Each structure stands twice: as structure tokens, then as C-alpha cells.
Amino acid sequence: MEAAEQLPLEKTEPLPWVEICKRYPDQYVCLVDIDRAELRSPEIKTARVVGHGPTRRAAFNAIRDLSAKYSRHAVRFTGICTEPLIRPSLLIDDETLEFLRS
User: How far apart are the C-alpha atoms of 97 and 101, rounded to whole Å?
Assistant: First the structure.
């Protein structure tokens, strides 16, 4: 069996995020037809899973050739992130702060 599995697009059903996490624990999932809790919210209410696997690339392979049909998709991780998040850092000392104020 492949590391990533492609699901038949016609047979998938919208699932709540909690159910997606239960069915595909600690995996990346490729989602389409996403229903968000609120407009512009990152929280996913329901979505259809069209691919999953151990990496982002593996999960996305399911719709790689169908990007015109599914122009709106998302790849999300269903587990807990164990690596520190990369965030831009900016240190502003008194000298720089004074420069910015002038």
C-alpha cells in the first residue's frame, strides 16, 4: 500500500473536523469543499477529505491533476505539532525605537 492514499472524489462525504482527526490521526489531509465556522476563520466546521498521508506533498497528490476543479483546497495536519513554530523575530532596542519615532 502507498504511503499516501487517494480517496475516490465522488465517494467522500463532508465530515466535521473532529471526525477527520479521528479517522486520520497524526496525518496530513487534503481538504476540499471546506465549510468554515465563520467567514475568514481558520476553524474548519466540515470538509471533504480527498487525500491523506505522512507529508503535505503526499496528501496533496490526490488533487494535483484536478487543481482546476478544486482551486480551493487546504492541506492540514490532524495531530499536535511537536516542532516549534517558525515566527519572525524582531528585536527593537532603545536606539532603534528612538530612530523609528523620529
Answer: 6
